[in-house]
Write a structure and sequence with these properties.
The protein is of the alpha+beta class. It contains 5 helices and 8 strands, in the order αααββββαβββαβ.
Length: about 180
């Protein structure tokens, strides 16, 4: 049955019908969709919480100094290094020093200009030596390859590298 037929059955004037329909449309429009609002407010709260956690995480991170790296991936920090000659007949004439897949063969007794990581590696190469003391024998840590190091500039490193290239020597090789 259509609505005009129903309205004629109830004898409702058309202007009253139009007014009632308008009121019904306003009532429907003003109804609150609680699920949609809950979803909206939940999304807003999650976004605010994520932003808060992100700020806390960023604040808790220590300030990291950005290092200037060279083409090998090492910091542009160099040292003039001399590894002392060995005391044993079995000691090689050179010391192989490796770091991150790169190997330096440094001749003993010769001054070279290398990355500071080479000195760091040598600094960690420690062995135990036995010494005679008043109370008997004592073991002490000692550098496996005693060396002397002084800071060097990038220009000194580049000059040393080009000098080695002229002599046909490779400064750094990969392992």
């Amino acid at each position: 049955m259509n609505t005009q037929a129903q309205n004629q059955d109830f004898n409702i004037p058309s202007d009253v019908e139009a007014r009632l329909r308008a009121q019904a449309a306003v009532a429907v429009a003003s109804q609150i969709d609680e699920k949609a609002l809950l979803a909206k407010y939940t999304a807003e709260a999650l976004a605010a919480r994520e932003a808060e956690l992100r700020e806390d995480a960023e604040a808790s991170l220590p300030e990291v100094e950005v290092q200037d790296l060279d083409n090998l991936g090492f910091p542009k920090k160099y040292v003039r290094l001399t590894i002392f000659k060995g005391t044993s007949k079995q000691d090689l004439s050179y010391v192989p020093v490796g770091c991150n897949g790169f190997v330096w063969r440094i001749r003993r007794g010769e001054a070279v200009v290398v990355h500071s990581v080479v000195a760091d590696v040598l600094n960690h190469a420690v062995t135990e030596v036995v010494l005679q003391a008043e109370g008997g024998l004592v073991t002490m840590p000692a550098h496996r390859f005693p060396y002397q190091a002084a800071p060097a500039t990038e220009a000194e490193y580049i000059a040393f590298k080009s000098k080695m290239a002229e002599q046909g020597k490779v400064v750094v090789t990969t392992a």
